[in-house]
Amino acid sequence: MAQQPVVFIDGEAGTTGLGIRERLSALPVRLHSIDPALRKDRDARKAAMAEADLVVLCLPDAASREAEAMAVELGADAPRLLDASTAFRTDPTWVYGFPELSPEQANAISSAPRVSNPGCYPTGAIGLLRPLIQAGVLPAHYPVCINAVSGYSGGGRQMIEAHERDGGPAFELYGLTLEHKHVPEIHTHAGLTARPLFVPSVGHFAQGMIVSIPLHLSMLEGAPTAADLHDILARHYAGQDHVRVVTADNALSAEALAHSDIMELRVHGTPHTRHALLTARLDNLGKGASGAALQNIRLMLGLS
Ligand SMILES: NC(=O)C1=CN([C@@H]2O[C@H](COP(=O)(O)OP(=O)(O)OC[C@H]3O[C@@H](n4cnc5c(N)ncnc54)[C@H](OP(=O)(O)O)[C@@H]3O)[C@@H](O)[C@H]2O)C=CC1
Ligand SMILES: CC(=O)N[C@@H](CCC(=O)OP(=O)(O)O)C(=O)O
């Protein structure tokens, strides 16, 4: 029997790491772990990397960069890397791990030595914008405004503890310098030429996310209707397991897809409105993190 590929999750005890570990139990892989007391020990992490075929980095950005440097030091023994942080998402030497962007993207992920897992908010924003830009209906220079709300698990262990111990705010806008770390990622991978304006927020619920983007249809090529935009998205994602283009509702709860790896896309608006609202609903820990990582792990290891 062929040997199972070895996977090491650097940051296994964190929010994203735990989610990936849980999902990996369904795959024919061997998980290589290190003594939890040594989880931040450089030598122990490097030795674990040398044992692995694939290392999944579930770390803050600085620790991910350090891990990548350690992999380079391993030379010919370097494992392939999948990084869940923001560190390499706009680095052209890494492949962006969003397989639904195109069949070519899925192929590129399969053979790449370095793959960056998309951010939670960018998954929703890029998932909505890119097919419309590609289809030529949304101009790349459109002044895009993105509003989004996340469950508090989006802030990792520290934010989870703050909400669960101290209550946390019911609803809070943040990133109000308008320089959130996800802006360059959305700008690059949506295919926009104009920098998008992004306003995130966090609510007092654990998991779930809505990303919403209002559009003035009269400013789009050919003045399409909301139904036309729905059809473009539906054609783009036809046959995909993790992204569904569904009928618009009059209200949307952010928590409905908690514990799911599916993302739902909607186009709201009636034939009478000259406005449309694009929405993406997902679990920030599911398709927004660990669920997407599992898709990439399957592709990288050739597991169907
Ligand atoms: N939470 C989310 O919704 C999403 C998170 N991500 C990204 O995934 C990454 C991990 O986030 P998340 O799981 O939420 O964060 P957590 O804080 O929950 O987990 C991070 C883990 O990394 C460990 N760690 C920190 N520094 C080091 C180090 N130098 N060496 C080894 N381990 C270290 C932490 O240990 P300790 O706690 O002891 O410090 C912790 O176990 C981040 O880059 C984040 O941006 C991506 C998409 C969504
Ligand atoms: C609520 C909250 O704080 N969310 C995080 C985003 C989640 C995250 O850090 O993950 P990725 O960048 O890897 O997607 C934030 O805004 O920084």
UniProtKB/TrEMBL annotation:
GO biological process: L-arginine biosynthetic process
Localization, UniProt: Cytoplasm
Gene3D superfamilies in the cross-refs: Dihydrodipicolinate Reductase, domain 2, NAD(P)-binding Rossmann-like Domain
Xref: Pfam families: Semialdhyde_dh, Semialdhyde_dhC_1
HAMAP family assigned: ArgC_type2
Function: Catalyzes the NADPH-dependent reduction of N-acetyl-5-glutamyl phosphate to yield N-acetyl-L-glutamate 5-semialdehyde.
Family: Belongs to the NAGSA dehydrogenase family. Type 2 subfamily.
Descriptive protein name: N-acetyl-gamma-glutamyl-phosphate reductase
